[in-house]
Amino acid sequence: MVKDINDQPIENVFVSCNDQKVLTGSNGEYMLELSSNKATKITFSHDSFQLYSRRIRFRNKKITIFSPKLESNLSSFL
Questions:
Q1: Alpha-carbon Rg for the chain in angstroms
Q2: Model pLDDT for residues 12-67, shown as the tens digit of each residue
Q3: Which end of the chain has the lower number of beta carbons within 10 A, N or C?
Q4: Residues 43 and 53: beta-carbon distance below 8 Å
């Protein structure tokens, strides 16, 4: 689930990883299928929030929950 810094879910965040690209739903949820034991970069982008990228590694073919908190672009103007 993708949330803002106030713990509110963010809809329509573009999530990309390798050749997969998805949008978050109204509750901020998304799903990707990734290879285990392989480092990969996952990127979250939305027009109203700062770009967020992180290199992660999943292990043992487990379901993993990765829930970043995105910071609003508006805070950079204050």
A1: 13
A2: 999 999 889 999 999 999 998 877 777 889 999 999 999 999 998 777 666 677 89
A3: C
A4: yes
Closest CA to 22 of 34, 31, 11: 31
CB burial of 41-73 (b: ≥16 within 10 Å; e: otherwise) equals: ebebebeebeebeeeeebeeeeeeeeebbbebe
Identify the residue whose tokens are 């999943």.
58
| Predicted TM-score of the model (pTM) | 0.84
**19 burial type by CB count under 10 A (0-12 exposed, 13-18 middle, 19+ buried):** exposed
**Do 22 and 29 meet the contact criterion of CB atoms below 8 Å apart?**
no
First-to-final CA distance of the chain: 27
